Amino acid sequence: MAGELLVQEVQNGLDGLSVNGDDKTNWGDMSSDQSSTDGSSVHGGDDKNTYIEVVDKSMSTHHIHNVYFYKEKIETTVAYSAYVVDQWIKVVNNDNRMKLDNVVVGLDVEYNRMRKQGKQNSVAVLQLCVGRCCLIFHISCCDAIPPSLDDFLGNEKFIFVGVGIESDAYNLVVDYELKVARTEELGSMAAYKLTNTFEDCRDSHFHKAGLKQLAKDVLNQELPKERRIQWSDWEDFLSDEQVEYACLDAFVSFKLGVHLMNRANPVHKRENNNNQNNNPQQKKSSKDPSEPKKGEEEKTKQQQVPLKSNGGNKTTGTNSKRTN
Questions:
Q1: What segments bear the compositional bias annotation Basic and acidic residues (predicted)?
Q2: What pLDDT does 248 receive?
Q3: Which one of 153, 158, 214, 279 has the fewest beta carbons within 10 angstroms of its own beta carbon?
Q4: Can you name the residues that pair with 313 across neighbouring β-strands?
C-alpha cells in the first residue's frame, strides 16, 4: 500500500504533463548561434566533454560565455545587474509565448558551504536554464532583484525541475521571498517513469540519486562535479570554472526534465498480485481490517483534485525545513 501511495503521489504531479516537441527538439532555435567570439578564450575542464568559452567579460553588468556539454552549446549569461535579469526573462517569455503550458526550466542554486556560526549561508547564485539558454544570477553581488523574476518563478506555465528542488525553492523563499510556483523533483520523476512496479518505484535508488548519478543513469552522460568548485566562494565574482559548474547543473537538470517528461507514464503493477490471488487467506490475514477503507478514502481525495493543479507543487515555504 505504501508503494501504491508513493506512485500515486508522483503520478498526481505528472499527469497531463508534456512538453512541446521531443528530445530531438532544436533547443538552439531559442537563441542565436551567431554570438561573437572575437578575443575569447577557452578553458577546458578535467572532463574532455565539457569546456567553457569566454565571449565577453568587458562589462560590469554581465558576462557572456559559451559552455559546452558534449556537442551542445549553452549560451550563458552571468548577471550582476537586475536589468540584465529582466532582459533575459523577457527573451524567454517571448520565445515561449505560443506555448500554453508546461515549459520546462532547469533550476539550481549555489551558496557557500562553510557555515557561519552554525547557520547555512544565504543563496548566492540562482541558475535558470531554458533550452540552450542559461542565466546565472549572482544575487549576492546584484544591485536589486527585479519584479520580473518573482513573476517568472511564480508563473504556473513553467515547471521548474532539479535535484533537491523543494529545498532550493524553500531557501529562495526564506532568503529573498521568491516563491517558485511549480516544481518537480527529478529523482522522484525518474523513479516513477523508469520502473514498472509499485515496489520498484518505492525502492528505487533514483529517489536519493544526485544530479551526477541521474545524468549517468538516465542520459548516459558524465557530469563533472568537482568538490573544490562546489565548496568554493560563491559570493565573490565568479571564476570561469564556477560559471561552467553552475551552468551545467541547470542545463543537465533541464535536459533530464525534458527527457523524463517525454516518456510515457508507465502502468505500475504489484509484484505479488499473483501470489495474493492464489492464496486469498494469506491476503486477508496480512492486512489490517481498516486498511482498505483508508485506501479508498485516499483514492477519493486524490480524484477530487482538479487535473490542472496536478502539474507541480506549490512552494510556500511552510512545507520544508531549512537546516540551520
A1: 285-301
A2: 98
A3: 279
A4: 183
132 domain-assigned = yes
Instruction: Name the residue with cell 560559471.
Output: 243
Amino acid (one-letter) located at 41: S
Q: How many residues does the chain have?
A: 324
The amino acid sitting at 133 is C
Burial class (CB in 10 A: 0-12, 13-18, 19+), 132: buried
pTM for the full model? 0.73
Q: Is residue 319 part of a domain?
A: no
Counted domains in the chain = 1
| Domain extent at residue 194 | 2-311
| Residue 235 exposed, middle or buried by CB count within 10 Å (0-12, 13-18, 19+) | middle
61 inside domain: yes
Q: DSSP characters for 297-312?
A: HHHHHHHTS-GGGGGS
CA distance 96 to 268: 33
Instruction: Please give the single-letter amino acid code of residue 33.
Output: D
For position 23, which CATH number holds?
3.30.420.10
Q: Which of 188, 187, 177, 169 is nearest to 315 (CA)?
A: 169
Q: Is residue 316 part of a domain?
A: no
- How far, in Å, CA of 284 to CA of 264, rounded? 34
**In this predicted structure, what is the pLDDT of residue 92?**
94
Successive 10-residue mean pLDDT values, the chain, 324 residues: 48 46 39 41 67 95 96 96 96 86 94 76 96 96 92 96 97 96 97 93 95 96 94 93 98 98 86 56 44 42 39 46 44
